[in-house]
Amino acid sequence: MGMLKEEDKQYIREQFEGKLVGQVKILLFTQKLECEYCQPTEEILKELSELSELLTLDVHNLQIDSEDAKQYNIDKVPAIILLDEKDKDYGIRFFGIPSGYEFSSLLADIIDVSNGASDLAQELVAKIAGIQEPVDIKVFVTPTCPYCPGAVRAAHKIAIANPGMIKAQMIESTEFPHLANKYAVYGVPKTVINERVQFEGAMPDQAVVEQVLAAIQVTDS
Amino acid sequence: MEFSFSVSAPTKVDLAETYDLVIIGGGPTGLTAAIYASRAKLKTLVVEKGAPGGLVTTTEWIENYPGFPEGVAGPELGRAMQEQAQRFGTEIFKGQPENINLTSNPKEMTLGGKKVTVRAVIIATGTKPRKLNIPGEAELSGRGVSYCATCDGPFFAGKELVAVGAGNSGVQESIFLLKYATRITIVEYLPTIQAEKILVERFNSTGKGSFLLNHEVLSIEGSDKVTGVKVRDRVSGAETLIPCAGVFVWIGLVPQTDEFKDILKLDKWGYVEVDSELRTNIEGVWAAGDVISGATRQIAAAVGSGVTAAMSVEHKLSQQS
Ligand SMILES: Cc1cc2nc3c(=O)[nH]c(=O)nc-3n(C[C@H](O)[C@H](O)[C@H](O)COP(=O)(O)OP(=O)(O)OC[C@H]3O[C@@H](n4cnc5c(N)ncnc54)[C@H](O)[C@@H]3O)c2cc1C
Fold first, then answer.
1. What is the Cα–Cα distance from B18 to B204, expressed in whole angstroms?
2. How many domains does chain A have?
3. Which residue of B5, B48, B262, B289 is most buried, as measured by CB atoms within 10 A?
4. CB contact under 8 A, B112 and A123
5. Is B11 a residue whose pLDDT tops 90?
6. Is residue A1 part of a domain?
Protein backbone atom coordinates (compact mmCIF):
# COMPACT_ATOMS: atom_id res chain seq x y z
CA MET A 1 0.00 0.00 0.00
CA GLY A 2 1.20 3.46 -0.84
CA MET A 3 1.32 6.33 1.59
CA LEU A 4 -1.11 8.51 -0.31
CA LYS A 5 -4.72 7.56 -0.82
CA GLU A 6 -5.80 7.03 -4.40
CA GLU A 7 -8.27 9.93 -4.25
CA ASP A 8 -5.59 12.23 -2.89
CA LYS A 9 -3.27 11.27 -5.71
CA GLN A 10 -6.00 12.11 -8.17
CA TYR A 11 -6.55 15.49 -6.55
CA ILE A 12 -2.82 16.30 -6.56
CA ARG A 13 -2.52 15.21 -10.20
CA GLU A 14 -5.29 17.63 -11.14
CA GLN A 15 -3.73 20.45 -9.15
CA PHE A 16 -0.34 19.87 -10.75
CA GLU A 17 -1.82 19.58 -14.21
CA GLY A 18 -3.48 22.95 -13.93
CA LYS A 19 -0.78 24.80 -12.03
CA LEU A 20 2.69 23.48 -12.81
CA VAL A 21 4.55 25.40 -15.50
CA GLY A 22 8.23 24.50 -15.36
CA GLN A 23 10.09 21.49 -14.06
CA VAL A 24 10.73 21.15 -10.33
CA LYS A 25 13.56 19.07 -8.93
CA ILE A 26 13.06 17.71 -5.47
CA LEU A 27 16.36 17.05 -3.69
CA LEU A 28 16.23 14.82 -0.67
CA PHE A 29 19.11 14.28 1.72
CA THR A 30 18.91 11.16 3.86
CA GLN A 31 21.09 8.69 5.69
CA LYS A 32 20.67 4.98 6.29
CA LEU A 33 21.27 4.75 10.01
CA GLU A 34 19.77 6.63 12.89
CA CYS A 35 17.20 8.47 10.88
CA GLU A 36 13.77 7.20 11.74
CA TYR A 37 12.01 9.53 9.34
CA CYS A 38 14.30 9.27 6.30
CA GLN A 39 12.75 6.16 4.82
CA PRO A 40 9.12 7.32 5.06
CA THR A 41 10.14 10.72 3.70
CA GLU A 42 11.75 9.10 0.71
CA GLU A 43 8.68 6.96 0.13
CA ILE A 44 6.24 9.85 0.20
CA LEU A 45 8.42 11.97 -2.10
CA LYS A 46 8.73 9.08 -4.51
CA GLU A 47 4.96 8.75 -4.69
CA LEU A 48 4.58 12.48 -5.04
CA SER A 49 7.14 12.86 -7.81
CA GLU A 50 5.28 10.25 -9.83
CA LEU A 51 2.21 12.46 -9.97
CA SER A 52 3.56 14.83 -12.61
CA GLU A 53 6.02 14.55 -15.45
CA LEU A 54 7.39 17.90 -14.41
CA LEU A 55 8.70 16.53 -11.10
CA THR A 56 11.93 14.67 -10.47
CA LEU A 57 13.35 13.28 -7.26
CA ASP A 58 17.08 13.12 -6.49
CA VAL A 59 18.07 11.31 -3.35
CA HIS A 60 21.43 12.16 -1.80
CA ASN A 61 23.21 10.70 1.16
CA LEU A 62 24.31 13.19 3.78
CA GLN A 63 27.69 11.52 4.31
CA ILE A 64 28.48 10.18 0.85
CA ASP A 65 27.38 13.34 -0.95
CA SER A 66 28.86 15.64 1.61
CA GLU A 67 29.94 18.17 -1.03
CA ASP A 68 26.34 18.62 -2.16
CA ALA A 69 25.20 18.78 1.44
CA LYS A 70 27.68 21.57 2.02
CA GLN A 71 26.59 23.44 -1.07
CA TYR A 72 22.98 23.49 0.14
CA ASN A 73 23.83 23.94 3.82
CA ILE A 74 22.33 20.66 4.90
CA ASP A 75 23.39 19.49 8.35
CA LYS A 76 20.53 17.24 9.35
CA VAL A 77 18.18 14.77 7.71
CA PRO A 78 15.74 14.21 6.22
CA ALA A 79 16.11 17.48 4.33
CA ILE A 80 14.19 18.61 1.25
CA ILE A 81 15.18 21.32 -1.22
CA LEU A 82 13.22 22.48 -4.25
CA LEU A 83 15.03 23.61 -7.40
CA ASP A 84 13.57 24.83 -10.65
CA GLU A 85 14.49 23.55 -14.10
CA LYS A 86 17.60 25.73 -14.20
CA ASP A 87 18.70 24.36 -10.81
CA LYS A 88 17.84 27.65 -9.19
CA ASP A 89 17.61 27.26 -5.42
CA TYR A 90 14.65 29.21 -4.00
CA GLY A 91 15.88 28.97 -0.43
CA ILE A 92 13.13 26.55 0.56
CA ARG A 93 14.10 23.89 3.09
CA PHE A 94 12.11 21.21 4.88
CA PHE A 95 13.90 19.51 7.76
CA GLY A 96 11.92 16.50 8.89
CA ILE A 97 9.10 14.69 7.19
CA PRO A 98 6.50 16.96 5.57
CA SER A 99 3.57 14.96 6.90
CA GLY A 100 0.19 16.00 8.26
CA TYR A 101 -0.59 19.62 7.51
CA GLU A 102 2.93 20.30 6.25
CA PHE A 103 2.38 18.12 3.23
CA SER A 104 0.09 20.85 1.95
CA SER A 105 2.90 23.39 2.42
CA LEU A 106 5.12 21.24 0.24
CA LEU A 107 2.48 21.02 -2.49
CA ALA A 108 2.01 24.77 -2.52
CA ASP A 109 5.79 25.34 -2.58
CA ILE A 110 6.22 23.02 -5.54
CA ILE A 111 3.63 24.98 -7.48
CA ASP A 112 5.32 28.27 -6.59
CA VAL A 113 8.79 27.08 -7.59
CA SER A 114 7.39 25.77 -10.83
CA ASN A 115 5.98 29.23 -11.51
CA GLY A 116 9.03 31.04 -10.16
CA ALA A 117 6.74 33.19 -8.02
CA SER A 118 4.25 33.03 -5.17
CA ASP A 119 1.07 34.94 -4.40
CA LEU A 120 2.86 37.25 -1.97
CA ALA A 121 1.43 40.72 -2.57
CA GLN A 122 3.42 42.81 -5.05
CA GLU A 123 4.32 45.56 -2.58
CA LEU A 124 5.69 42.96 -0.14
CA VAL A 125 7.71 41.27 -2.86
CA ALA A 126 9.25 44.65 -3.62
CA LYS A 127 10.25 45.18 0.02
CA ILE A 128 11.79 41.73 0.28
CA ALA A 129 13.55 41.90 -3.08
CA GLY A 130 15.47 44.94 -1.82
CA ILE A 131 17.15 43.05 1.01
CA GLN A 132 20.89 42.81 0.47
CA GLU A 133 22.08 40.75 3.37
CA PRO A 134 21.58 37.11 4.35
CA VAL A 135 18.38 36.24 6.18
CA ASP A 136 17.75 32.91 7.85
CA ILE A 137 14.18 32.04 8.81
CA LYS A 138 13.40 29.00 10.91
CA VAL A 139 9.80 27.91 11.37
CA PHE A 140 9.22 25.24 14.01
CA VAL A 141 6.13 23.08 13.48
CA THR A 142 4.41 19.87 14.46
CA PRO A 143 2.58 17.91 11.75
CA THR A 144 -0.68 18.10 13.71
CA CYS A 145 -0.74 21.89 13.94
CA PRO A 146 -3.35 23.37 11.60
CA TYR A 147 -1.92 26.90 11.90
CA CYS A 148 1.64 25.91 11.05
CA PRO A 149 1.39 25.79 7.25
CA GLY A 150 0.40 29.46 7.41
CA ALA A 151 3.73 30.32 9.05
CA VAL A 152 5.77 27.97 6.86
CA ARG A 153 4.23 29.29 3.69
CA ALA A 154 4.76 32.91 4.69
CA ALA A 155 8.47 32.18 5.27
CA HIS A 156 8.83 30.21 2.06
CA LYS A 157 7.05 32.86 -0.01
CA ILE A 158 9.42 35.45 1.40
CA ALA A 159 12.40 33.27 0.41
CA ILE A 160 11.01 32.90 -3.10
CA ALA A 161 10.92 36.69 -3.40
CA ASN A 162 14.69 36.93 -2.76
CA PRO A 163 16.25 33.48 -2.91
CA GLY A 164 19.78 34.80 -3.24
CA MET A 165 19.66 36.24 0.26
CA ILE A 166 16.90 34.42 2.11
CA LYS A 167 16.74 30.84 3.31
CA ALA A 168 13.56 29.64 4.99
CA GLN A 169 13.44 26.35 6.83
CA MET A 170 10.55 24.32 8.11
CA ILE A 171 11.74 22.34 11.13
CA GLU A 172 9.64 19.46 12.40
CA SER A 173 10.11 19.92 16.13
CA THR A 174 9.56 16.35 17.30
CA GLU A 175 12.33 15.04 15.01
CA PHE A 176 14.88 17.60 16.15
CA PRO A 177 14.26 17.94 19.88
CA HIS A 178 17.69 19.44 20.48
CA LEU A 179 16.81 22.35 18.20
CA ALA A 180 13.37 22.71 19.71
CA ASN A 181 15.12 22.87 23.06
CA LYS A 182 17.78 25.30 21.95
CA TYR A 183 15.18 27.70 20.61
CA ALA A 184 12.82 27.11 23.55
CA VAL A 185 9.97 25.86 21.42
CA TYR A 186 6.97 24.83 23.53
CA GLY A 187 4.32 25.99 21.13
CA VAL A 188 4.02 26.05 17.38
CA PRO A 189 4.29 27.63 14.95
CA LYS A 190 7.34 29.49 16.20
CA THR A 191 9.44 31.57 13.83
CA VAL A 192 13.03 32.64 14.47
CA ILE A 193 14.68 35.13 12.13
CA ASN A 194 18.45 35.57 12.05
CA GLU A 195 18.65 34.14 15.55
CA ARG A 196 17.42 37.52 16.82
CA VAL A 197 13.77 38.15 16.18
CA GLN A 198 11.26 35.52 17.17
CA PHE A 199 7.52 35.24 17.41
CA GLU A 200 4.86 32.65 18.05
CA GLY A 201 1.78 31.97 15.97
CA ALA A 202 0.81 32.42 12.36
CA MET A 203 0.72 36.04 11.26
CA PRO A 204 -0.46 37.65 8.02
CA ASP A 205 2.21 37.88 5.29
CA GLN A 206 2.65 41.58 5.82
CA ALA A 207 3.42 41.21 9.52
CA VAL A 208 6.00 38.51 8.81
CA VAL A 209 7.66 40.74 6.21
CA GLU A 210 7.88 43.49 8.82
CA GLN A 211 9.52 41.05 11.24
CA VAL A 212 12.09 40.16 8.60
CA LEU A 213 12.87 43.83 8.02
CA ALA A 214 13.10 44.38 11.77
CA ALA A 215 15.52 41.46 12.10
CA ILE A 216 17.86 43.02 9.57
CA GLN A 217 17.84 46.31 11.42
CA VAL A 218 18.65 44.53 14.65
CA THR A 219 21.55 42.82 12.93
CA ASP A 220 22.74 46.10 11.46
CA SER A 221 22.77 48.07 14.65
CA MET B 1 4.83 4.64 12.48
CA GLU B 2 1.73 6.02 10.85
CA PHE B 3 1.61 9.19 8.83
CA SER B 4 -1.18 11.22 7.37
CA PHE B 5 -0.78 13.66 4.52
CA SER B 6 -3.08 16.61 4.15
CA VAL B 7 -3.45 17.58 0.53
CA SER B 8 -6.05 20.19 1.08
CA ALA B 9 -4.22 23.46 1.52
CA PRO B 10 -5.81 25.79 -0.91
CA THR B 11 -3.14 26.66 -3.36
CA LYS B 12 -3.05 29.83 -5.36
CA VAL B 13 -6.46 30.93 -6.61
CA ASP B 14 -6.79 33.37 -9.45
CA LEU B 15 -9.34 35.68 -7.95
CA ALA B 16 -12.19 36.88 -10.12
CA GLU B 17 -13.24 40.53 -9.98
CA THR B 18 -16.69 39.73 -8.78
CA TYR B 19 -18.46 37.01 -6.80
CA ASP B 20 -22.08 36.31 -6.02
CA LEU B 21 -21.14 35.32 -2.50
CA VAL B 22 -18.10 35.76 -0.30
CA ILE B 23 -18.08 33.78 2.93
CA ILE B 24 -15.69 35.14 5.53
CA GLY B 25 -14.47 32.20 7.63
CA GLY B 26 -13.88 28.64 6.45
CA GLY B 27 -14.98 26.61 9.46
CA PRO B 28 -17.83 24.06 9.34
CA THR B 29 -20.36 26.88 8.95
CA GLY B 30 -18.62 28.64 6.07
CA LEU B 31 -17.75 25.45 4.23
CA THR B 32 -21.30 24.10 4.53
CA ALA B 33 -22.75 27.36 3.27
CA ALA B 34 -20.27 27.11 0.41
CA ILE B 35 -21.39 23.59 -0.52
CA TYR B 36 -25.00 24.78 -0.77
CA ALA B 37 -24.20 28.02 -2.56
CA SER B 38 -21.91 26.35 -5.10
CA ARG B 39 -24.46 23.69 -5.85
CA ALA B 40 -26.96 26.47 -6.42
CA LYS B 41 -24.48 27.79 -9.00
CA LEU B 42 -23.61 30.93 -7.09
CA LYS B 43 -20.02 32.01 -7.75
CA THR B 44 -18.70 31.47 -4.25
CA LEU B 45 -15.46 32.39 -2.51
CA VAL B 46 -14.49 31.38 1.01
CA VAL B 47 -11.90 33.58 2.70
CA GLU B 48 -10.02 31.84 5.51
CA LYS B 49 -7.20 33.43 7.47
CA GLY B 50 -6.15 30.35 9.40
CA ALA B 51 -6.84 26.72 8.67
CA PRO B 52 -9.82 25.62 6.57
CA GLY B 53 -12.02 23.52 8.84
CA GLY B 54 -11.89 26.12 11.59
CA LEU B 55 -11.82 25.13 15.24
CA VAL B 56 -12.60 21.55 14.31
CA THR B 57 -9.02 21.14 13.13
CA THR B 58 -7.71 21.80 16.63
CA THR B 59 -9.51 18.89 18.22
CA GLU B 60 -8.32 15.35 17.77
CA TRP B 61 -11.50 13.33 17.84
CA ILE B 62 -15.18 14.17 17.45
CA GLU B 63 -17.77 11.75 18.74
CA ASN B 64 -21.03 13.63 18.59
CA TYR B 65 -21.26 14.58 14.93
CA PRO B 66 -23.86 12.31 13.34
CA GLY B 67 -22.87 9.88 10.62
CA PHE B 68 -19.64 8.71 12.22
CA PRO B 69 -20.57 5.96 14.69
CA GLU B 70 -16.94 5.47 15.70
CA GLY B 71 -16.18 9.19 15.73
CA VAL B 72 -14.03 11.12 13.31
CA ALA B 73 -10.71 12.96 13.56
CA GLY B 74 -11.23 16.72 13.65
CA PRO B 75 -8.70 17.49 10.89
CA GLU B 76 -10.22 14.78 8.72
CA LEU B 77 -13.73 16.20 9.07
CA GLY B 78 -12.53 19.71 8.31
CA ARG B 79 -10.70 18.57 5.27
CA ALA B 80 -13.62 16.49 3.98
CA MET B 81 -15.91 19.53 4.25
CA GLN B 82 -13.38 21.61 2.37
CA GLU B 83 -13.02 19.09 -0.43
CA GLN B 84 -16.77 18.78 -0.72
CA ALA B 85 -17.12 22.53 -1.17
CA GLN B 86 -14.28 22.68 -3.69
CA ARG B 87 -15.76 19.81 -5.64
CA PHE B 88 -18.80 21.93 -6.43
CA GLY B 89 -16.71 24.89 -7.49
CA THR B 90 -16.09 26.87 -4.31
CA GLU B 91 -12.82 28.77 -4.38
CA ILE B 92 -10.86 29.21 -1.17
CA PHE B 93 -8.63 32.21 -0.61
CA LYS B 94 -6.14 32.03 2.22
CA GLY B 95 -5.89 35.34 3.94
CA GLN B 96 -7.87 38.05 5.57
CA PRO B 97 -10.13 40.49 3.75
CA GLU B 98 -9.15 44.16 4.04
CA ASN B 99 -10.97 47.43 3.36
CA ILE B 100 -14.29 45.66 3.74
CA ASN B 101 -17.25 47.81 2.70
CA LEU B 102 -20.44 46.00 3.64
CA THR B 103 -22.80 48.90 3.10
CA SER B 104 -22.02 49.67 -0.54
CA ASN B 105 -23.87 47.91 -3.32
CA PRO B 106 -22.25 45.74 -4.58
CA LYS B 107 -20.11 45.19 -1.50
CA GLU B 108 -16.35 45.54 -1.74
CA MET B 109 -13.21 44.15 -0.16
CA THR B 110 -9.53 43.74 -0.92
CA LEU B 111 -7.98 40.29 -0.95
CA GLY B 112 -4.20 40.02 -1.20
CA GLY B 113 -4.08 43.51 -2.70
CA LYS B 114 -6.82 42.82 -5.24
CA LYS B 115 -10.20 44.52 -5.17
CA VAL B 116 -13.21 42.25 -5.36
CA THR B 117 -16.91 43.14 -5.55
CA VAL B 118 -19.64 40.89 -4.16
CA ARG B 119 -23.42 40.67 -4.14
CA ALA B 120 -23.77 38.95 -0.77
CA VAL B 121 -21.58 38.25 2.26
CA ILE B 122 -21.92 35.60 4.97
CA ILE B 123 -19.96 36.24 8.15
CA ALA B 124 -18.89 32.85 9.53
CA THR B 125 -15.87 33.94 11.52
CA GLY B 126 -16.65 31.80 14.56
CA THR B 127 -14.83 32.26 17.83
CA LYS B 128 -11.39 32.11 19.32
CA PRO B 129 -10.24 30.87 22.72
CA ARG B 130 -10.93 33.17 25.65
CA LYS B 131 -7.83 34.21 27.53
CA LEU B 132 -7.46 34.11 31.29
CA ASN B 133 -6.03 37.64 31.39
CA ILE B 134 -3.83 36.92 34.36
CA PRO B 135 -0.14 37.68 34.96
CA GLY B 136 2.19 35.40 33.05
CA GLU B 137 -0.30 34.34 30.42
CA ALA B 138 0.73 36.63 27.58
CA GLU B 139 4.42 36.56 28.53
CA LEU B 140 4.56 32.77 28.52
CA SER B 141 2.28 32.16 25.55
CA GLY B 142 4.16 29.74 23.32
CA ARG B 143 6.47 29.03 26.24
CA GLY B 144 4.19 26.56 27.92
CA VAL B 145 0.88 28.41 27.74
CA SER B 146 -1.21 26.96 24.94
CA TYR B 147 -4.73 26.87 23.56
CA CYS B 148 -4.21 24.06 21.04
CA ALA B 149 -3.63 20.50 22.24
CA THR B 150 -3.06 18.94 18.82
CA CYS B 151 -0.48 21.64 18.01
CA ASP B 152 1.58 21.67 21.17
CA GLY B 153 0.84 18.37 22.93
CA PRO B 154 4.04 16.68 21.66
CA PHE B 155 6.23 19.17 23.56
CA PHE B 156 5.02 17.83 26.88
CA ALA B 157 5.97 14.17 26.65
CA GLY B 158 6.78 12.92 30.12
CA LYS B 159 5.79 16.23 31.71
CA GLU B 160 3.08 17.35 34.12
CA LEU B 161 0.40 19.75 32.93
CA VAL B 162 -2.38 21.94 34.21
CA ALA B 163 -5.54 22.44 32.19
CA VAL B 164 -7.87 25.29 33.01
CA GLY B 165 -11.60 24.70 32.59
CA ALA B 166 -13.63 21.54 33.25
CA GLY B 167 -16.02 21.95 30.34
CA ASN B 168 -16.31 19.51 27.44
CA SER B 169 -13.32 20.96 25.61
CA GLY B 170 -11.09 21.00 28.67
CA VAL B 171 -11.78 17.40 29.64
CA GLN B 172 -11.72 16.04 26.10
CA GLU B 173 -8.46 17.76 25.20
CA SER B 174 -6.91 16.71 28.50
CA ILE B 175 -7.62 13.08 27.66
CA PHE B 176 -5.77 13.64 24.39
CA LEU B 177 -2.86 15.35 26.14
CA LEU B 178 -2.40 12.33 28.39
CA LYS B 179 -1.00 10.58 25.34
CA TYR B 180 2.08 12.66 26.07
CA ALA B 181 1.84 14.05 29.57
CA THR B 182 2.28 11.95 32.69
CA ARG B 183 -0.24 13.89 34.79
CA ILE B 184 -2.89 16.54 34.31
CA THR B 185 -4.69 18.61 36.89
CA ILE B 186 -7.82 20.29 35.58
CA VAL B 187 -8.51 23.47 37.52
CA GLU B 188 -12.10 24.73 37.50
CA TYR B 189 -13.43 27.98 38.92
CA LEU B 190 -16.91 26.62 39.58
CA PRO B 191 -17.66 24.04 42.29
CA THR B 192 -18.88 21.50 39.70
CA ILE B 193 -17.60 19.79 36.56
CA GLN B 194 -19.40 21.06 33.47
CA ALA B 195 -18.31 18.36 31.02
CA GLU B 196 -20.44 15.40 29.88
CA LYS B 197 -20.29 12.39 32.21
CA ILE B 198 -18.91 10.09 29.52
CA LEU B 199 -15.86 12.34 29.13
CA VAL B 200 -15.34 12.67 32.88
CA GLU B 201 -15.44 8.89 33.31
CA ARG B 202 -12.91 8.43 30.54
CA PHE B 203 -10.61 11.06 32.02
CA ASN B 204 -10.83 9.50 35.47
CA SER B 205 -10.17 6.02 34.11
CA THR B 206 -6.74 7.10 32.86
CA GLY B 207 -5.62 7.21 36.49
CA LYS B 208 -3.39 10.13 35.55
CA GLY B 209 -5.76 13.02 35.92
CA SER B 210 -7.49 14.89 38.69
CA PHE B 211 -9.84 17.82 39.14
CA LEU B 212 -9.29 20.81 41.35
CA LEU B 213 -12.72 22.42 41.66
CA ASN B 214 -13.70 25.78 43.10
CA HIS B 215 -10.22 27.18 42.48
CA GLU B 216 -9.26 30.39 40.77
CA VAL B 217 -6.12 30.58 38.68
CA LEU B 218 -4.18 33.65 39.86
CA SER B 219 -1.03 33.62 37.75
CA ILE B 220 1.21 31.56 35.56
CA GLU B 221 4.72 31.33 36.89
CA GLY B 222 8.05 31.04 35.10
CA SER B 223 10.65 33.34 33.60
CA ASP B 224 11.42 31.96 30.15
CA LYS B 225 9.09 28.99 30.37
CA VAL B 226 6.21 27.82 32.49
CA THR B 227 7.19 26.29 35.81
CA GLY B 228 3.88 26.38 37.63
CA VAL B 229 0.44 27.82 38.18
CA LYS B 230 -0.70 29.68 41.25
CA VAL B 231 -4.27 28.94 42.34
CA ARG B 232 -6.53 30.07 45.16
CA ASP B 233 -9.12 27.93 46.93
CA ARG B 234 -12.32 29.95 46.62
CA VAL B 235 -13.63 28.64 49.94
CA SER B 236 -10.64 28.79 52.25
CA GLY B 237 -8.74 31.46 50.36
CA ALA B 238 -5.56 29.34 50.58
CA GLU B 239 -3.08 29.85 47.76
CA THR B 240 -0.99 27.03 46.32
CA LEU B 241 1.51 26.64 43.54
CA ILE B 242 1.02 23.66 41.24
CA PRO B 243 4.33 22.87 39.52
CA CYS B 244 3.89 22.05 35.82
CA ALA B 245 5.63 22.40 32.46
CA GLY B 246 2.61 23.64 30.58
CA VAL B 247 -0.83 25.18 30.94
CA PHE B 248 -3.63 24.56 28.46
CA VAL B 249 -6.54 26.97 28.65
CA TRP B 250 -10.16 26.06 27.75
CA ILE B 251 -12.35 28.57 29.54
CA GLY B 252 -14.68 29.36 26.69
CA LEU B 253 -14.68 31.32 23.50
CA VAL B 254 -15.03 34.88 22.28
CA PRO B 255 -16.57 35.88 18.94
CA GLN B 256 -14.29 37.11 16.15
CA THR B 257 -16.29 40.21 15.31
CA ASP B 258 -13.90 43.06 16.09
CA GLU B 259 -13.63 44.26 12.53
CA PHE B 260 -17.41 44.41 12.10
CA LYS B 261 -18.33 45.99 15.41
CA ASP B 262 -18.97 49.45 14.00
CA ILE B 263 -21.25 48.19 11.25
CA LEU B 264 -23.07 45.10 12.41
CA LYS B 265 -25.43 44.94 15.32
CA LEU B 266 -23.83 42.81 18.04
CA ASP B 267 -25.14 41.58 21.38
CA LYS B 268 -23.42 42.61 24.59
CA TRP B 269 -20.91 39.78 24.34
CA GLY B 270 -19.98 40.69 20.79
CA TYR B 271 -21.95 38.01 18.93
CA VAL B 272 -23.79 39.06 15.76
CA GLU B 273 -27.53 39.57 16.03
CA VAL B 274 -29.54 37.96 13.24
CA ASP B 275 -33.16 37.24 12.32
CA SER B 276 -34.64 33.78 11.69
CA GLU B 277 -33.11 33.71 8.20
CA LEU B 278 -29.75 34.72 9.66
CA ARG B 279 -29.84 38.19 8.08
CA THR B 280 -27.92 40.89 9.93
CA ASN B 281 -28.96 44.52 10.22
CA ILE B 282 -27.16 45.26 6.94
CA GLU B 283 -28.91 44.39 3.68
CA GLY B 284 -27.06 41.65 1.83
CA VAL B 285 -25.03 40.53 4.85
CA TRP B 286 -25.78 37.30 6.68
CA ALA B 287 -24.07 35.73 9.70
CA ALA B 288 -24.07 32.07 10.69
CA GLY B 289 -22.56 29.48 13.00
CA ASP B 290 -20.75 30.04 16.27
CA VAL B 291 -20.45 33.78 15.67
CA ILE B 292 -24.17 34.51 16.01
CA SER B 293 -25.95 35.46 19.17
CA GLY B 294 -27.43 32.50 21.04
CA ALA B 295 -25.68 29.83 18.93
CA THR B 296 -25.41 26.27 20.26
CA ARG B 297 -21.70 26.21 19.30
CA GLN B 298 -21.44 22.63 18.20
CA ILE B 299 -20.45 21.38 14.76
CA ALA B 300 -23.84 19.91 13.90
CA ALA B 301 -25.51 23.19 14.80
CA ALA B 302 -22.91 25.23 12.90
CA VAL B 303 -23.45 23.15 9.80
CA GLY B 304 -27.23 23.64 9.99
CA SER B 305 -26.75 27.35 10.38
CA GLY B 306 -24.57 27.44 7.27
CA VAL B 307 -27.33 25.78 5.27
CA THR B 308 -29.95 28.25 6.44
CA ALA B 309 -27.81 31.23 5.53
CA ALA B 310 -26.86 29.87 2.10
CA MET B 311 -30.47 29.13 1.21
CA SER B 312 -31.56 32.57 2.29
CA VAL B 313 -28.78 34.14 0.20
CA GLU B 314 -29.76 32.10 -2.81
CA HIS B 315 -33.40 33.04 -2.45
CA LYS B 316 -32.54 36.72 -2.21
CA LEU B 317 -30.11 36.74 -5.13
CA SER B 318 -32.49 34.83 -7.38
CA GLN B 319 -35.04 37.59 -6.85
CA GLN B 320 -32.51 40.20 -7.91
CA SER B 321 -31.31 38.64 -11.12
C1 LIG C 1 -11.19 22.26 21.68
C2 LIG C 1 -12.55 22.22 21.03
C3 LIG C 1 -13.20 21.00 20.91
C4 LIG C 1 -14.46 20.93 20.28
N5 LIG C 1 -15.06 19.71 20.18
C6 LIG C 1 -16.28 19.63 19.58
C7 LIG C 1 -16.93 18.37 19.45
O8 LIG C 1 -16.41 17.33 19.88
N9 LIG C 1 -18.15 18.34 18.85
C10 LIG C 1 -18.77 19.46 18.36
O11 LIG C 1 -19.86 19.37 17.80
N12 LIG C 1 -18.17 20.67 18.49
C13 LIG C 1 -16.95 20.79 19.08
N14 LIG C 1 -16.36 22.01 19.22
C15 LIG C 1 -17.08 23.21 18.71
C16 LIG C 1 -16.92 23.36 17.20
O17 LIG C 1 -15.54 23.36 16.91
C18 LIG C 1 -17.58 24.64 16.70
O19 LIG C 1 -18.93 24.63 17.05
C20 LIG C 1 -17.48 24.82 15.20
O21 LIG C 1 -16.15 24.73 14.77
C22 LIG C 1 -18.08 26.15 14.75
O23 LIG C 1 -17.91 26.34 13.39
P24 LIG C 1 -17.83 27.80 12.73
O25 LIG C 1 -17.56 27.56 11.31
O26 LIG C 1 -19.05 28.57 13.08
O27 LIG C 1 -16.64 28.53 13.45
P28 LIG C 1 -15.06 28.16 13.49
O29 LIG C 1 -14.86 26.69 13.50
O30 LIG C 1 -14.55 28.93 14.64
O31 LIG C 1 -14.47 28.73 12.13
C32 LIG C 1 -14.39 30.11 11.88
C33 LIG C 1 -13.27 30.33 10.90
O34 LIG C 1 -13.25 31.70 10.48
C35 LIG C 1 -11.92 32.14 10.32
N36 LIG C 1 -11.90 33.60 10.44
C37 LIG C 1 -12.22 34.35 11.51
N38 LIG C 1 -12.10 35.66 11.23
C39 LIG C 1 -11.67 35.74 9.94
C40 LIG C 1 -11.36 36.82 9.07
N41 LIG C 1 -11.46 38.10 9.46
N42 LIG C 1 -10.94 36.54 7.82
C43 LIG C 1 -10.82 35.25 7.40
N44 LIG C 1 -11.11 34.20 8.19
C45 LIG C 1 -11.54 34.43 9.44
C46 LIG C 1 -11.19 31.44 11.44
O47 LIG C 1 -9.80 31.33 11.16
C48 LIG C 1 -11.90 30.08 11.49
O49 LIG C 1 -11.23 29.11 10.71
C50 LIG C 1 -15.08 22.11 19.81
C51 LIG C 1 -14.43 23.34 19.96
C52 LIG C 1 -13.18 23.41 20.56
C53 LIG C 1 -12.50 24.73 20.70
1. 54
2. 1
3. B289
4. no
5. no
6. no
